[in-house]
Amino acid sequence: MAPAEPILQVRDLVKHFPLTQGILFKRQIGAIKAVDGVSFDLHRGETLGVVGESGCGKSTLAKVMMALERPTSGSVMVNGKDITKAKGAELKRMRRNIQMVMQDPYTSLNPRMTVGDIIGEPFEIHSEVVPKGDRRKRVQELLDVVGLNPDHINRYPHQFSGGQRQRIGIARGLALQPEIIICDEPVSALDVSIQAQVMNLLDRLQKEFNLAYIFIAHDLSVVRHISDRVAVMYLGKIVELGGDNQIYERPSHPYTQALLSAVPVPNPEGREARQRIILQGDPPSPANPPSGCRFRTRCWKAQDICAKEEPLLQIRPGTDHPSACHFAEALDVVHSQS
Amino acid sequence: MSDPSVTQDLIHGGEGPAASVVSASNKPRSLWQDTWDILRHRKIFWISLIMLILFLLMAAFPSLFTHKNPDYATLAKSMEPPSGEAWFGYDLQGRDVFARTIYGARTSIIVGVLATLLTVVLGGIAGVLAAYYARWVDSVLSRIGEIFLGVPYVLGAIIILGTVAPAQSSPDRVTIMAVVIIVLAVLGWPILMRIARSSVIQAKHQDYVQAARALGAGPFRIIFKHLLPNSLAPILVYATITIGSYIGAEATLSLLGIGLREPVISWGIAIADHTSYIRTGAHAMLFPAAFLSLCVLTFVMLGEAVRDALDPKLR
Ligand SMILES: Nc1ncnc2c1ncn2[C@@H]1O[C@H](COP(=O)(O)OP(=O)(O)OP(=O)(O)O)[C@@H](O)[C@H]1O
Ligand SMILES: [Mg+2]
């Protein structure tokens, strides 16, 4: 379904946060390796799910792609132009094409602005997009598109529920008609019943406007329905990347297998049949990751080679999609083939 | 594969009246609304508000409170004690102490308010710049602020005022008030800078600022639309308290003979002029001193009441 030309190309992206000491004369004593060499493509109209535990660098990756943080190295090509190197008017123009929906609907809307001002702000910043007289109408159309009452344009964010606020955030992201929207855990702050509504809305908008999504979540079950492909992240690196069925039915990296074994299974037979893999310990600190394979300290397959040699993200014998494990082998964890 | 259907059910079942709940009762409400609800039930807030209104009326329309001329002197009545004719008695030069105390409110409040405004502007700009640009801008501004804070207040004032308006000089009304206002603000801005800086830093890390940046908003829009409106509360509270302390500081400087001086009418001057008569004619000093204390207290109490109401830890 995805055409050949990617609209987003991320190459060897690295973001290290320096750890400094001293007040006046700061000196660097180390770095938090939040994102450490990430590459992938995104095609028009496609959804890439990005999954990983808390602290593995998902939000940092999103911020670097949005040019909110400067990468330590690497590039993010949006329609062939590197957004991380763009400046001034060019950067501003590029921003029209890539927008984001934030995690927390309670902090992502300015409490001192009305909904009309919040959704209308993109038009004020990019005044060439919609003439002044038409802006209010455009805002009302956007409210309608995301399923809110256009008459509520003069209300303040605190007068809405969490799910409604997230719709406001989505309307703001849509305003400039971007081709790419990065959703950073857009439903994790919402009630389960509301989560489904917002996911459904995102799904509908994708079809309506042919949007490409990067959909970030810490849980594989959330991304499953919306993603065409899934990237699994661990400590700043992608450890497995594949199509939705490849990841869910034939996961080959032990970390993915462990994550999948924790996903709730709706059908009782599946629950009986599957084995649970419980990971020991917490993820190591991104300031001081293990040598070789970063997952080896929690991996039941770890051998000497895992400490010495870093496994690259590549297709390995017996697998049909890239995996960063020396001992990758497809394993059906969920037993959900039908 | 059965899981998608579960979500489908939720999706269709959930889209309905549940999605249109708009109620203020169980959702977080605006900061000011909560603050007002707490303030309404505080006695101290109402007391200080009423006193504030009284003092402001005094400053704006002194003739509402007294029909006497504060500058009219009858030397024969020098230091006469309070009586039915002159409630607060007469001062050293035979002027009506009540009238002078009422008229003194204007000077004190003008000095307090203008010096605070200047402090807020100086400290606010420095704080916003330090917080927004961080890095070396922050380091430089914070160090400069520390240098100013390191100078003891009175010492700093003596040095500046002693140079610009020495005790024996007699500058005109406007000049000396302007000088005192500037001195107070120049010595006081670093504290306001710290408050503005920390509250802007807090606002800066909010997601809505990131969202505005992602939309391509420039520094001007981010500062004026997003950062300032959301960091104003602590600045306003501190400013209110500052008005009170500046009124006290102005009196201190007058007492030292380097602040305001004749022909300005002020509580500080009245106190200064009569300190040596405290045993024979305390009234000439005590009434202005009482008004001064009450006025300082009013602003400090009001500021603290609002601060407590804004403080989420006390809820
Ligand atoms: N501005 C920063 N300065 C220093 N370290 C940071 C900064 N932002 C993030 N980090 C660190 O980078 C690592 C990755 O953080 P990030 O927020 O990207 O994780 P995440 O995958 O989004 O986690 P979560 O699921 O909790 O949102 C963490 O260890 C975090 O402490
Ligand atoms: Mg995150």
UniProtKB/TrEMBL annotation, chain B:
Belongs to the binding-protein-dependent transport system permease family. GO terms for cellular component: plasma membrane. Residues 105-303 form the ABC transmembrane type-1 domain. Its main location: membrane. This is Peptide ABC transporter permease. GO terms for biological process: transmembrane transport. It is a multi-pass membrane protein. InterPro entries: BP-dependent_transpt_permease (IPR050366), MetI-like (IPR000515), MetI-like_sf (IPR035906), OppC_N (IPR025966). The chain crosses the membrane at residues 44-65, 109-134, 146-168, 174-192, 235-258, 285-306. Residues 1-22 are annotated as: Disordered. It comes from Planotetraspora phitsanulokensis. Gene3D superfamilies: MetI-like.
